[in-house]
Amino acid sequence: MSPLESLASSAVRTANKAKATLIVVMTRGGTTAKLVAKYRPAVPILSVVVPFLTTDSFDWTCSDETPARHSLIYRGLIPLLAEGSAKATDAESTEVILEGALKSATQRGLCKPGDAIVALHRIGGASGNLWAV
Question: Which residue range or ranges hold the Pyruvate kinase C-terminal domain (predicted)?
Answer without folding.
Answer: 5-124
